[in-house]
Amino acid sequence: MTQTKNEFSPGSAPKRAVIYLRVSTPRQVNRAEDHEGHALSAQREACHRKARSLGAEIVDEYIDKLLA
Question: What are phi and psi of 39, to 5 degrees?
Answer without folding.
Answer: -65, 155
